[in-house]
């Protein structure tokens, strides 16, 4: 049999994967360190009993969108239900944006290093990517953007804040400078705030019907619902209407909507958990610095760091990562990624998980100093 050929532009593409290793402490995928409250699981179970399984779900996800709009409006965002779009995780949110506003013959703009799915989804939807390097401090140099936008007109510009994998939060003035250039060029600015609840600034303050800006969020991190695959965006009502044209009908199932609605009754629990993670982030940050690592200040639920160089001045990231795995602790090995030579990324876990990680890292670095990194 002659097999059908995949699209030529996808033939060499590899999927997005995060290695999973059987370890005691898993701190590599930025998941929440604990499951949702037991009362939440009970609420979802009750909701499941009332679902009419033989009927299609509410295509408009009316209650879910209404509740989300009310929460963000209370935080100061100028939004109503018409400004909320929900999908199967924030990645589907991003994919739907690109299906509607990018695609073949159009460009997307990313600032590297950043979340790999922006580039990946852009590729599979047929868009061309423009990549601008961040500074050596992983900042966006807005002073160079005027020339870029003079010669290029990206349809969609992505900014991840807090940025993954660096954890750094883009200041308001950077977002405003980008928004000015994007508006003048007739494009769309997407601020990916998957980790937004862990930071002090959200671009939702800048939303408006005449502003080509969307802010995407996810239930995976602060709501401890990575297994549910639920995300959403806030944006102009006209943009939400355009997204509804390209999304699959009934794409958001009834149970997922019920789970998302139930979670909104546990805002206090979520806020408490965010505060605990932020406190632990500060503790882990200080401990990493005390061990001689280079650390980038994070506004997310993870920290990017570079272990000390060896006696020959070479990076030790991969050796340290393996040493941690040997001690049953898994972090994300980013040491071979472009721009991140020798770096590792650790998710903030429970206090016990963090203690285990720091003890293992201390052991690995001590062994490394003695000439045996394992």
Summary?
The protein is an alpha/beta fold. The chain has 11 helices and 12 strands. Helix content is 38%, strand content 15%.
List keywords for this structure.
single chain; 374 residues; alpha/beta; Aspartate Aminotransferase, domain 1; Aspartate Aminotransferase, domain 2; 2 domains; 7-stranded mixed β-sheet; 5-stranded mixed β-sheet; 12 strands; 15% strand; globular
Structure description:
With 374 residues, this protein is an alpha/beta fold. It has 2 domains: 17-35 and 268-369, Aspartate Aminotransferase, domain 1, CATH 3.90.1150.10; 58-252, Aspartate Aminotransferase, domain 2. 38% of the residues lie in helices and 15% in strands. It is built from 11 helices and 12 strands. It has helices at 38-49, 62-74, 89-101, 116-124, 145-151, 172-185, 237-246, 254-263, 267-290, 317-326, 351-369, and strands spanning 25-27, 84-87, 107-112, 128-133, 156-160, 188-192, 213-218, 231-234, 294-296, 302-306, 329-333, 344-347. The strands form 2 sheets. It has a 7-stranded mixed sheet with strand order 2-8-7-6-5-3-4, sandwiched between helices. It has a 5-stranded mixed sheet with strand order 1-11-12-10-9. The radius of gyration is 21 Å and the shape is globular. The chain starts with 24 loop residues before the first strand and ends in a 5-residue tail after the last helix.
């Amino acid at each position: 049999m002659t097999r059908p050929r995949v699209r030529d532009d996808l033939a060499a593409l590899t999927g997005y994967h995060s290695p999973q290793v059987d370890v005691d402490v898993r701190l590599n995928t930025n998941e929440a360190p604990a499951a949702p409250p037991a009362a939440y699981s009970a609420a979802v179970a009750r909701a499941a009993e009332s679902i009419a399984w033989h009927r299609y779900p509410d295509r408009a996800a009316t209650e879910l969108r209404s509740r989300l709009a009310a929460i963000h409006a209370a935080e100061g965002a100028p939004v109503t239900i018409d400004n909320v779009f929900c999908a199967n995780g924030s990645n589907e949110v991003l994919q739907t944006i690109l299906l509607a506003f990018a695609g073949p013959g159009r460009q997307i703009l990313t600032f590297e290093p950043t979340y790999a799915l922006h580039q990946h989804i852009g590729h599979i939807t047929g868009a061309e990517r423009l990549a601008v390097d961040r500074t050596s401090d992983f900042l966006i140099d807005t002073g160079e953007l005027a020339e870029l936008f003079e010669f290029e007109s990206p349809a969609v510009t992505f900014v991840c804040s807090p940025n993954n994998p660096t954890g750094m939060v883009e200041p308001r003035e950077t977002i405003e400078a980008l928004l000015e250039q994007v508006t003048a060029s007739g494009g769309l600015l997407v601020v990916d705030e998957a980790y937004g609840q862990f930071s002090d600034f959200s671009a939702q303050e800048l939303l408006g019907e005449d502003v080509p800006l969307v802010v995407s969020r996810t239930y995976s991190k602060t709501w401890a619902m990575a297994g549910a695959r639920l995300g959403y965006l806030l944006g102009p009502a006209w943009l939400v209407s355009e997204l509804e044209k390209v999304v699959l009908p009934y794409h958001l199932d009834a149970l997922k909507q019920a789970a998302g609605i139930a979670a909104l009754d546990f805002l206090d629990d979520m806020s408490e958990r965010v505060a605990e993670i932020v406190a632990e982030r500060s503790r882990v940050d200080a401990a990493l610095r005390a061990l001689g690592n280079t650390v980038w200040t994070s506004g997310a639920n993870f920290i990017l760091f570079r272990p000390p160089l060896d006696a020959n001045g070479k990076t030790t990231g991969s050796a340290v990562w393996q040493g941690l795995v040997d001690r049953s602790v898994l972090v994300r090995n980013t040491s071979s990624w472009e721009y991140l030579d020798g770096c590792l990324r650790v998710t903030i876990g429970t206090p016990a998980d963090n203690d285990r990680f720091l003890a293992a890292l201390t052991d690995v670095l001590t062994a490394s100093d003695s000439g045996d990194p394992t």
